[in-house]
Amino acid sequence: MRTMPAPLEIYEQMCMLSTRMVEAARANDWDRLIALERAVGELRDSLLQVDDGKPESPQAAARRRELIRRILEDDAEVRRHTEPWMEKVRRFLSGGARKPSERNSQAGR
What we know:
Layout: H1 7-26, H2 30-50, H3 58-94, H4 100-107
Helix pairs in contact: 1-2, 1-3
């Protein structure tokens, strides 16, 4: 039977993946970014299963806080790269990405 990793090990893995997510976002590698995001989600779900509420050592608590801080910083960096792309997609899907000449010709109808 496979043993579940300790919560701190899961945070370590999540942090490693979040760093890779930043790299994928910088490279506009959306497929890779999505795959990494799914992997982080699976780790998050497993974290909910293994967190037994036992008190952790001060060193482990400090390390967990540092990892969470880094994950949040990486998340902010990913958003800096994905939000402009998402806004373009929103405009395209709403029809706002039409050429000005198309908009003017439709306005005269």
